[in-house]
Write a structure and sequence with these properties.
Indoleacetamide hydrolase; Amidase; Amidase_CS; two-stranded antiparallel ribbon; 14 helices; Amidase signature (AS) enzymes; alpha/beta; eleven-stranded mixed beta sheet; Amidase_dom
């Protein structure tokens, strides 16, 4: 074990009592990246020099008695969808190779203000679209549990970096499940906050109606700490470690149990999680959600219509620089009309209202699946057509409710994840439940084999 294996609370305590410096902590993470990332391809750019300078400044601030909060001196890594003024930002696309922005995305600015040490930029599916693809200059990030398998996307490098022990917390984005599904596939924690809770300024948009800034972290507590440092009016850490007595969790079992793609081991794992949460004091009540297909249809129209408008001119001018599957996926929005988009947005509002009135009026949170299977082999993504993986994530981009993916078991040695969904603005309850489950189980403590 090295300093790179310390949790954020452990490292923060040592930074403050003098047992550890940020320079030493940062060097431990840089060493870990050098040792392991050749197998994972999580980092597109490692900012060693600027990270060491930021770490030295964090140490100097501590010595002056300045404390900017729990992320001061803590290494963090950023998905390559967010502008960073001192390192390349390419949006995962060869089209923007070598691009260095003139300013920081808002979330990056907030991390710097919090005293975090930015280690570098993480692999993403191209423009946060489909993947993995193999006709780009940089290879797709690999799943640390089995490097012949994908991580899920689009926050692929974020999940690989956390699961592989390269960094404890990362910034990603989530438009249809892009932090939650990679977290589930890689055995990490993924938090998609309430829509708009973390500003998206300075992130390349995929679908502004559904885009969320999210996190992939090594634990629920570390996700909550990171969230509180960068979100508007955030208090996700306030109920960590408190009892679940008095909470009602709606178990949306039928929402995934009857799907033919649901792995039996996943159903067993989430049934077991419901039982454990009951033993921890929560009341479990089965609930019925609107059909998953309704959310998926609405989300697909919004994403394809909005993404096509964003890329229309660039696609016409530089389409040859897009990977083929991404080009095809964006171009599919050509057939959608403004009326189609307007109707889909109206349907999204109706689904959100229905969920609030019929489910969240009775329960404090929802328990369901994140993905229906473990990670899929890279070989399954060969060929011309995009390969869609079975998930239950886009519904909460459509409605904007906060959602958290937490490891809940294994199938054939590969991680599985459950999903907890909260009321609008209530990340605190979602993290309270997720943390209680994490502490009472041992799945988050399991680590992949060394590369």
């Amino acid at each position: 074990m090295t300093a790179a294996d310390l949790s954020i609370p452990e490292a923060a305590a040592r930074l403050r009592d003098g047992r550890l410096t940020s320079v030493a902590l940062t060097e431990a993470h840089l060493t870990r990246i050098a040792e392991r990332d050749g197998a994972y391809h999580a980092f597109l750019h490692v900012a060693a020099e600027s990270a060491q300078a930021a770490a030295a400044e964090a140490d100097a601030a501590f010595s002056r008695g300045e404390d900017l909060g729990p992320l001061q001196g803590i290494p963090v890594a950023i998905k390559d969808l967010f502008d960073t003024a001192d390192m390349p930002t390419t949006y995962g696309s060869d089209l923007h190779a070598g691009r260095v922005p003139t300013g920081d995305a808002e979330v990056v600015r907030r991390l710097r203000t919090a005293g975090a040490v930015l280690l570098g930029k993480l692999e993403t599916y191209e423009f946060a679209m489909v993947g993995p693809v193999f006709d780009r200059a940089f290879p797709p990030a690999a799943n640390p549990w089995d490097t012949s398998r994908a991580t899920g996307g689009s926050s692929s490098g974020s999940a690989a970096a956390v699961a592989g022990g390269l960094v404890r917390t990362t910034i990603g984005s989530d438009t249809g499940g892009s932090v939650r599904s990679p977290a589930a596939y890689c055995g990490a924690v993924g938090l998609k906050p309430t829509y708009g809770r973390i500003p998206t300024r300075g992130a390349f948009p995929l679908s502004p109606s559904l885009d969320h800034v999210g996190l992939v972290s090594a634990s629920v507590a570390e996700a909550a700490i990171t969230f509180d440092a960068i979100a508007d009016g955030a208090y996700a850490t306030t109920r960590l470690g408190t009892s679940l007595d008095g909470l009602t969790i709606g178990y949306a079992r039928d929402w995934f149990a009857g799907d033919p793609e649901t792995l039996p081991a996943l159903l067993d794992a989430i049934d077991g999680a419901a039982s454990l949460l009951s033993l921890l004091g929560a009341r479990i009540e089965e609930v019925t959600l609107p059909d998953a297909a309704d959310f998926e249809a609405v989300g697909a129209v919004i994403i394809h219509a909005e993404a096509f408008e964003i890329h229309r001119r660039q696609l016409a001018a530089s389409g040859a620089h897009y990977s083929r599957k991404v080009f095809q996926n964006i171009a599919s929005g050509l057939c959608l009309t403004p009326d189609d988009l307007a109707h889909a947005r109206q349907a999204a509002a109706r689904l959100r209202t229905r969920l609030d009135r019929t489910v969240f009026s009775r329960v404090d949170a929802i328990l369901t699946a994140t993905t229906l299977t473990p990670a899929i082999p890279f070989a399954d993504f060969a060929g011309e057509a995009a390969r869609w993986t079975p998930m239950r994530t886009i519904a909460f981009n459509v409605t904007g409710h906060p959602a958290l993916s937490v490891p809940c078991g294994f199938a054939d040695g590969l991680p599985l994840g459950l999903q907890l969904v909260g009321k609008t603005g209530d990340e605190a309850t979602v993290c309270q439940i997720g943390h209680a489950y994490e502490m009472a189980s041992d799945f988050s403590a399991s680590k992949p084999p060394r590369p």
